[in-house]
Amino acid sequence: MIELSREEDVYTLTMTAGENRWNTTFVREFAAALDEVEASTGAAALVTASASEKFFSNGLDLDWVAAPDAHPEAGDRGAFGAEFMVLMGRIITFPVPTVCAINGHAFGAGFMAALCHDVRIMRSDRGFVCANEMQLGMKIPDQELALFRHKLPRHVFFETVQLARRWTGPEALAAGIVSETGELDGLLASAQRRAAALAPLGANRELYGGQKETLFGENAVINGPHGPAYLLRTAGDH
Amino acid sequence: MIELSREEDVYTLTMTAGENRWNTTFVREFAAALDEVEASTGAAALVTASASEKFFSNGLDLDWVAAPDAHPEAGDRGAFGAEFMVLMGRIITFPVPTVCAINGHAFGAGFMAALCHDVRIMRSDRGFVCANEMQLGMKIPDQELALFRHKLPRHVFFETVQLARRWTGPEALAAGIVSETGELDGLLASAQRRAAALAPLGANRELYGGQKETLFGENAVINGPHGPAYLLRTAGDH
Amino acid sequence: MIELSREEDVYTLTMTAGENRWNTTFVREFAAALDEVEASTGAAALVTASASEKFFSNGLDLDWVAAPDAHPEAGDRGAFGAEFMVLMGRIITFPVPTVCAINGHAFGAGFMAALCHDVRIMRSDRGFVCANEMQLGMKIPDQELALFRHKLPRHVFFETVQLARRWTGPEALAAGIVSETGELDGLLASAQRRAAALAPLGANRELYGGQKETLFGENAVINGPHGPAYLLRTAGDH
Question: Whole-structure pTM over 0.90, yes or no?
Fold first, then answer.
């Protein structure tokens, strides 16, 4: 479901569950891989990628959400909401540089996960990033709104959350959602090169992660008393 | 002064007062048209357009402001400030998708009205959008600042409010002020097509409008205790 | 170190100290030039430029920071931090339009100074703007974070402060960090033309500076209780 490999200073976390839909088991395996990266010392950076050719991550595991008892391998349904948000709060303040290779569709929770990384590189010819809640008739949680608000220019934030716009790679690049696009062939290699270049910033984790806390943590208010990292992290409390 | 028509799910509100300058009568006719749209049920979207070939809306009715008694048809001068802001607060949180066809100049209050819509499509070859208060030696009200701040990227916000920049269609597109440009011929049709595509989002008005309240309502703080919708709406109270 | 000249309504402040590194003496000479501009009346605007062909301002005077006693001409080391921030707070709310001609590298404190101006024009073929603290292993002070956060679109803010990106002129233009680029030859003249066009806005200093106070002053909260001008200005108190 989640594989972690290392090549010099660069860890690569590969999601290998097809559409890579989020359920409690997926969250916990992802978190365990982060534990391993975080336990390392010295220069380091993380690349997050997908083994699929079509999907980065297609959102929630809706089959499981509809019938959790029919999918026990997907884990504790009741624990999911808060644990997912806490994981996002952990990624957005991760103490080493993080690079996301968006090789295909990133919808809903998958888009959130991508946006929590420091750098996004997206496939140019196919795939959309999209927060599709409005289209599905669902309210976007406050934590997710805070995340989008802090990461995107105002007009891009609005089109993303209110109009559920599907952004292609070139559109996402122009909008500032991703910082680079490329062909599928070579996308992972680009992400790994970028991660290798940023890895020295990860050597001082207290400094690198500490500044992200300042950017996204408690008191990083825009809309409400707290910023996205704090809201994501404390999602179980409110 | 204001005409409202309907074609399937798309309402078109056309301003037919030449330069479409804002006075109390204009505000109340605009509000009455919104009442009609809001009283409908099911999928719906609103297009706001101008019958003029040169002006979308050229700002306040300055003749009336200078000599209200000489223009009784323009309405109660004392009621204007708060009622105009309240109308803008209503548009920015309108519970169905709103598309604005900017066919010509949109200055001051006219630019505010355009910016309160969800989507803006602007004529490419002529016309400016501009908040010209600084050039006229007027302070921009807090409500208007909050509106611009929440809708525009930071550098665009600054050039707009502090330097009173006149943005052409192509410049407004690059800056994120509008999301599309086109020739005057076909501008209204483009806006109506866009509105038709977004109309299904308006079917659940509590959800669609409720999320805008979250984006722009009370506690949507950036500069002061409240966001633009709240400030616009309560302009009569402070 | 600092030269000030005037041509009709346009003051030009030229930094003539080579790399134009910041120490207490440099801060005080810069402030004295601002005193002279501020003592004038009527339409006015300020251009800030460098006499160097390679550097706009290369950041802190690190030789002096490392060994202040060996460089007594650089001034009181203990006074520097707060006085520098206060100067930045003064520029960001300066009551006449300010235009910065970035003719070469602007790093750290030099980038901050450029960003406090109303308009930036940057050399297109050489030179970087960069907040290089993360690369140097230094925490970015809260005042500086607030400045960057209020001036830049979200994704540009993040790449600037967290990833210490070196922006070329064309990249800075696309990102909204500068509003114009040009060849070194003619850069100063462009800045002066722009300043002359904006100078009338400076005639009413209470209005022009007062609105900047609203944009950047106390209560201009995003991340913490106060905005960048307030934080910069009161840097000595906390």
Answer: yes
